[in-house]
Amino acid sequence: MTQGPPRAPGEPASRGATVISERATRRIAAQAAREALESRPHTAARASADTRRGRTKIALEVDLPYPVDIDGVCGQVRRHVGSRTLELTGVPVTSVEVLVGRLTPVHALDAERLV
């Protein structure tokens, strides 16, 4: 049995693979959601990720101030999280689901500050 020429140490086939954990993907997605929401006060974001066969699905729960364009903000968050997660992990994002967990009236938040 003959072997082919030895491979250089830097060739991809000889280096192995990098695996991104779901925990890392979840943290990256949550941070990306916070980045997308940073211009809006009183927001929060939580994420979960399901990675299978080299692809990931992300589910987010966000808290938003009210009144707000919910559809517009969720679309912005969805796009930013999908692109940023792909950029940082290299794992294709097949879907980003955004659930609004809480809407907090801005006037209620302002009243709390005055007390």
From TrEMBL:
Superkingdom per UniProt: Bacteria
Region annotation (Disordered) ranges: 1-54
> What protein name does the entry list?
Asp23/Gls24 family envelope stress response protein
